[in-house]
UniProtKB/TrEMBL annotation:
Protein name: Transcription termination/antitermination protein NusA
Top-level taxon in the UniProt lineage: Bacteria
Pfam family, one: KH_NusA_1st
Signal peptide region: none
SUPFAM superfamilies xref list: Nucleic acid-binding proteins, Prokaryotic type KH domain (KH-domain type II), Transcription factor NusA, N-terminal domain
HAMAP family the UniProt entry points to: NusA_B (MF_00945_B)
Any one annotated GO CC term: cytosol
Any single GO BP term: DNA-templated transcription termination
């Protein structure tokens, strides 16, 4: 009966975790063999018969009968006198199979057995979860907010699996309440110890790509190919698309009538501004398209150095740079070129780095962040606008402008 009592303790795991019969039997045999090794030193002369469907388990020890007084290995040999207590007609040299009751292992061993069994079943369960989510890396997944922490949101899916959405993988405007459903891509799955850690991301370019697949049938069907996605999460993104079917306008199909198709994607991403661009192998044309909505006058490219000098009319410069410098930075990431903007008709200008004797490096860096690398580029800006777009004080900006003006007045 003690066998059945122990089997009942693990049958609940079988039902709860839906472990198949073969796997459960393998786990049970492994656990019991470890217990036998601890008690008897080895286990290869034991037969373990598991019947989880009936809740039954038998352990048989196989030994050889030797003459009385000649037993050298208690585990593998049994004296004739002891053998005849089992069956009176045993003779020396015969094999004896004797059932080992769980109670013979000792109370502490049985408690350890149960704990080891629980651990093995959980380990099996965790391995299956790891494999399941490893196959889902890069795919969109939905889970419910379970707990909100300072550095992460803990989500639970329908099967109770825990998924982590770290703060730095959330769009800045994201705000979730407990019980809300959250969409993102499974970014990474790692086994830490025996427990899988599943990380979700809403900021990865892949999330935007998968949203296009979900929301735009031509992308899902492969009629439109997404060549590359670059993002400043929650602010701006650029998506290069292409189609091998000349009858399809990939940009028009993705955006839809009056933006109808892309609207749900924009809303999901916290009103992220998404530019959809026709991909081309003509790199000069691709840079021109990537800098949209700015209209370019001319481009001078160095393909080996991967740099491009773009000439624009003065009124187009701010469009090319974009708010916070996002447009020019994303255009560079999309095309793989370092893009420098120049104003048409400006013959004489000086790069800001030439003023390091009078302007501190970190101040120059602040201007560079928003795409202002030359003296005239800064002087053409409004002071209040620069205060808003940089981390610089108004007084600092005015001082910089005074230094720059003096350069051209001399």
């Amino acid at each position: 009966m003690e066998n059945i009592a122990l089997i009942e303790s693990f049958s609940e795991f079988k039902d709860d975790k839906l472990i198949d019969r073969v796997t459960l039997m393998a786990i049970l045999e492994d656990v019991f063999r470890n217990a036998l090794k601890k008690k008897y030193g080895e286990d290869d002369n034991f037969d373990i018969i598991v019947n989880p469907d009936k809740g039954d388990l038998e352990i048989w020890r196989n030994r050889i009968v030797v003459a009385d007084g000649e037993v050298e290995d208690d585990n593998r040999e049994i004296s004739l006198a002891q053998a005849r207590k089992i069956e009176p007609d045993f003779e020396v040299g015969e094999d004896v199979s004797e059932e080992v009751k769980l109670v013979d292992l000792g109370r502490r061993a049985i408690l350890a057995l149960r704990q080891n069994l629980i651990s093995k079943i959980h380990e099996h369960d965790n391995t299956n979860i790891y494999k399941q989510f490893k196959d889902l890396e890069g795919e969109i997944y939905t889970a419910e907010v379970h707990h909100i922490r300072h550095r992460a949101i803990i989500l639970l899916d329908d099967e109770g699996n825990e998924i982590v959405l770290p703060k730095d993988r959330q769009i800045p405007s994201d705000f979730f309440r407990k019980g809300e459903n959250v969409r993102g891509i499974i970014e990474s799955v790692e086994l830490k110890g025996n427990k899988p850690t599943i990380i979700m991301s809403r900021t990865a370019p892949g999330f935007l790509e998968k949203l296009f697949e979900q929301e735009i049938p031509e992308v899902f069907d492969g009629l439109i190919t997404i060549k590359k996605v670059v993002r400043v999460p929650g602010e701006k993104a650029k998506v290069a698309v292409d189609s091998y079917d000349d009858r399809i306008d990939p940009v028009g199909a993705c955006v839809g009538m009056k933006g109808s198709r892309i609207h749900s994607i924009v809303r999901e991403l916290g009103n992220e501004n998404i530019d959809v661009i026709n991909f081309t192998n003509n790199e000069q044309l691709f840079i021109t398209r990537a800098l949209s909505p700015a209209k370019i006058t001319s481009i001078k490219m160095d393909e080996e150095a991967r740099t491009a000098e773009v000439m624009l009319k003065p009124e187009e410069v701010s469009k090319a740079i974009g708010r916070g410098g996002h447009n020019i930075r994303l255009a560079g990431q999309l095309t793989g070129y370092e893009i420098d903007v120049y104003r048409e008709g400006v013959e004489e200008d000086v790069e800001l780095k030439e003023f390091t004797d009078e302007i501190e490096d970190w101040v120059i860096a602040e201007f560079s962040k928003i795409g202002l690398d030359t003296a005239k580029a800064v002087l053409e800006q409004d002071v209040n606008d620069l205060v808003r777009r940089t981390d610089l004080e108004e007084e600092t900006i005015k001082d910089v402008m005074a230094v720059l003006r003096s350069e051209f007045e001399e």
